[in-house]
Amino acid sequence: MTNPPNPGAFRPPAPAVPGPRARTTTRYLRYGAGKVGGAAVSLFAVLVTGFFLFRLIPGDPVKTMTGGRPVSAEQMAAYREEFGLDLPLWRQFTEYCGKALTGDLGTSYQFHAPVTDKIAEALPNTLLLTGTAFVLFTLLGIVLGTRSAWRHGGLGDRLNTGLALTLYSVPSFWLGLLLIIVFSVGIGPVPGLFPTGGMESGGEEGFAQVLDVAHHLVLPVVTLVAVEYGQTLLVARSALLDEMGGDYLTTARAKGLRDDQVRRRHAVPNALLPTVTLVFVNLGRTVAGVILVETVFSWPGLGGLFYQGLSVPDLPLVQGLFLFFAGTVIVMNTLADLVYPLLDPRVGR
Asked: How far does CA 259 lie from the centroid of its chain?
């Protein structure tokens, strides 16, 4: 005789509960989607702002392009029709937005070439300048900032902090002009050692050309490093000072580690989290803020191109460069927001 079935033995399986890793991944995806969505909104706001902002610049692009030559009304009308300046403002705006979303930033008035081609042509020169300066001022700021914090209150800390604050408040164009006067033109017993501007002298090939470009690169790089390293130093110093009271440092010293080992192995890695965020932000800000330095030193990069566009005004060129500069800052800020939760899981919860 068989026993009757036990109702309690047949229970539906419990729903699967996501594990900690799945929940963390879901939170990060929601966090990342919010940051990317915010960046997209910011880019569209930049697109709108750039279109209307540069139309407030006084001057007629068509009259500037004719160079003061006598031009008939029919020719002026033909120029305006060619560049779309005869269309209503709302029509110009909608066409500009539609083309920009496909990567078409228009055609430069003065160069008669696509704006994207002009940006691609000048971008390597800007990256050479900003990349060199970025690596130098980041390393200099982190090294000096951590050393100042580890020996805070001493003479070296006071000198480093005071110099960083002073240089950080100096306008880059003023410092660049000062360096040109002292080290390019020469003053008193100091001879002119470096070129006053440009990227190369011309006529050089091979390794001699590399040395020539490096020679022209010195003063603009020194200008950017002097102005920018102070912020990295102050952030790195402040972050390490916050970590220096941690119990884990006391434990490390109790294990017999030397003071230098405690700083390098334990304190500095934890203090670098805010600095990592600043590195991304500085990278975008340096690319966007190089306009004045490139203009002062006649460096053939995006900054010099932007200055040329403003003098016309070359509306497609300045709009495209404005979008590129602002977009670089927005993208770098978004990358910093996305990387930080990977370094510190507490962010984004």
From this structure: 36
* Distance (Å, whole) CA 296 – CA 220: 9
User: What pLDDT does residue 234 have?
Assistant: 86
What predicted TM-score, i.e. pTM, was given to this entire model? 0.78
Query: SS3 of 93, please?
Result: helix
**How many Cβ atoms from other residues are within 10 Å of residue 213's Cβ?**
16
DSSP code at position 9:
G
Beta-bridge partner residues of 190 = 187
- Mapping DSSP onto H, E and C, the string for the chain reads CCCCCCHHHCCCCCCCCCCHHHHHHHHHHHHHHHHHHHHHHHHHHHHHHHHHHHHHCCCCHHHHHHCCCCCCHHHHHHHHHHCCCCCCHHHHHHHHHHHHHCCCCCECCCCCCEHHHHHHHHHHHHHHHHHHHHHHHHHHHHHHHHHHHHCCCCHHHHHHHHHHHHHHCCCHHHHHHHHHHHHHHHECCECCCCCCCCCCCCCCCCHHHHHHHHHHHHHHHHHHHHHHHHHHHHHHHHHHHHHCCCHHHHHHHHCCCCHHHHHHHHHHHHHHHHHHHHHHHHHHHHHHCCHHHHHHCCCCCHHHHHHHHHCCCCHHHHHHHHHHHHHHHHHHHHHHHHHHHHHCCCCCC
pLDDT (tens digit per residue) in 318-342? 888 988 988 888 888 888 888 777 7
Residue type, 326: A
Q: Write out pLDDT tens, residues 33-42.
A: 888 898 899 9
Q: How many residues does the chain have?
A: 349
Nearest to 304 by CA among 220, 178, 227: 220
